[in-house]
Structures are given as C-alpha cells and as structure tokens.
Amino acid sequence: MLKINSNFLNLKDSYLFATVGKKTAAYKKEHPEKDVIRLSIGDVTLPLAPVVVEAMHKAVDDMSRRETFKGYGPDQYCYGYESLIRSILGSYARKGVQLQPSEVFVSDGAKSDCGNILNIFSGENTVLVPDPVYPVYVDTNVMDGRNIVYMNANAENGFLPMPDEGVNADIIYLCSPNNPTGAAYSREQLKVWVDYALKRNAVILYDAAYEYFVTDKSLARSIYEVEGAQQCAIEICSYSKTAGFTGVRCGYTVVPQALVREGVSLNKLWARRQSTKFNGVSYVTQMGAAAVFTEEGERQISENLNYYRKNAQTIAQCLDELDIWYTGGKNSPYIWLKCPNGMESWAFFDYLLENANVVGTPGSGFGKNGEGYFRLTAFGSAESTREACRRIKALLEKK
Ligand code: PLP
Predict the structure, then answer these.
(1) What digits encode the pLDDT tens for the residues 329-338?
(2) Whose CA is nearest to atom 2 of ligand 1?
C-alpha cells in the first residue's frame, strides 16, 4: 500500500503571517479612512540596480540570437556560469576568504538550499536550531523526521546563543545577521562555534542571507573569515536581500573541498545531488547576478542597502528615545524589540495596530523565546518608516 511521508503530519501549522494579514485586513475594513503602515514587510521594495537590469537585457538579447543563444548551463560547475562564479569568488576575496570555483554552487535562492542541503545528511542526525528561528530550518527537518534540539536565544545572551558543551548536535544552524532578531555574531563568537563543531565532527549550516547589511568591522560577513570553518561549515547565501532579487531568484551555497565526513567529501555529495535534482538557474538571471559584485554593481546595491539601513536607524533611534530594549537595526534590516510594559507579542500587535495604525510581526510566531518580543523591518519607504516612528513615539511616550 502506498505510504505518504507521514513526517509532514508532524508539521505545525504556521499562522503567523496569515494572522497578521487577516487582522490587518479586518482593521482596514472597519476603518477604511485610516492609513495603516506595514513595518512587517520581510520583502525588499526597491527596484533592481541599473547594472543588473542592463546585464539582464543584454542576456535576453543573447538568447534571441542563434550565435549567442544558451541552453542548459555549463556542467562543469553544476550549471553555474563561470563569470558569475568568478564574481562571487571576488566578493569572498574582498572579505579575505579564498575559495575555488568548484566550491561555489549557484542556486535559485537560500530557502531552497536550506532545505535541499539536508539531502546529503542522514535522517538520524540531531539538529540544533536557535529559538526564535527562521521557520524553514525547523520545518525542513521535521519533514525528514530528524531529532531537533533547541538552543535558547534570549535577552541574556543578546539573542546570540553560544554552544552548550553538554549538548551533542550533528547539524547546527546559525543565521547571522539573524532573522528575526537582527543580532549578528562577531568573529570571536563564531570561532567558538567552529571549535565546538570541529570537536564533535558536526556541520554548521551558516545562513548568510543578510551579510551585506553588516557594516561593523568586528562582525563576520562569512563564517569562512574564521579559521577552521572550511572544515566544518556550509554557507548559504542569497541575492534576495543583498540586491533585491526576491522576485528574480538567485543565490549560492559554498561547500568547501575541505569538508569531509566519514571519509566522504560533502562537496562531491552536494555536486551529485545538484546535478541529479537541479538543472540550474536561468542564464538571464545568472548574468544579472554576475553584475552585482562588479565595482559598479556594488556601488549601486549599496545605495539601496543604505536606504534600508537609514530606515533601520530611524526605527532604532525611535526605540532609543523611548528607552525600549532591542537587538538588530545596526547591521540588519530587522529590529527586534521588547514589548513595552511586559505586554505579550500579540497584545502589543493589537495595541500598535489599533492605536498607531502600525503593523509589525509578533515575536512569539518565531518560537517560544519570541514571546514578549516584536519584529519591525526596514524594508518600507523612508516616509512611511518616519511616520510610523512618529506615531509609535507619540503613543508610547504617553504611557
Ligand atoms: N534565510 C533567511 C534567514 C531568510 O530570512 C530568508 C528570506 O526571508 C531566506 C533565507 C530566503 O531567501 P531566498 O529569497 O534567497 O530564498
């Protein structure tokens, strides 16, 4: 008899964004005259950089002529074009990290690879994930039936949990700068994680989707800035937040040649997995992505990143003035704040929606340690961010 993957039945329904949407829509229906501002957006809003658009236009022209037409991508690097891979290597070299082309795998984004990478690991491994957490790490492991152990991220550790020597884990998820908390690890902190992983023969899955928001020089932008990381870490990256590619879809995953477990190269396993189950990212997309890490590309994307950074600063300044505790906002588009007056996350959501007409995301939706916290994002317009902060200040100053 056919059997389904019954692990799917163990997934918890995610009501977070659906409930945020429903509550917001209901409020707007009841109060059509109100201007509701969404500081809950986890998606970029600014258009692609001109160099990217130009490269994509040129790539479309290439596809229109027999002499320059492209079919499947090159086999050599699992369908990644060498020009794109070389530009990614250049971006790493500027961080002081030397990689080889065969270590970079072009993907259609970080979410797919966060899930797909698990194909190369046994379902018997124990997985360590922070709480609160980007829900994809949990759900993809539940689908495979893996044992999940949580590590507490909280105000005491600045939402940056460090290894507990008493916990044995095989696969460790680290996300820095973090979604939802905006907290980012320093190189020294990552060194402790790398040493812990090496000691246990564990593998760190390092999600660097927000690394381009880091400006503080003491913080790591890649786990490979830390010695020993190439022996224990896979890094998952994305053009989504770096260059506004959420709708274009492109990312890359680094699996170093030095990463070997049970005498087997994880790079070889991943190459085999990708060449079997994946046929690459479109030529037009890859050419657009290759333009991102050129000198002009980096200059242009930094204009967009600075725009979001300024919004984050506006929100952080508002919270500073209100004396509200928060993480993030400085090296991240996310601001994770403690709900004032001991309010629970959903109570604060309702309070803010009804009294300031501002929408955020309740922290409790990201895990039990998120209760009492709230996520605001910097992806809105500068005007609406300023207006939202003005309203939040007026409301909370009164209390
Ligand atoms: N990783 C984290 C931590 C994210 O917050 C997101 C998107 O919000 C992703 C990965 C997914 O990125 P992509 O658009 O590249 O799939």
Answers:
(1) 999 999 999 9
(2) 209
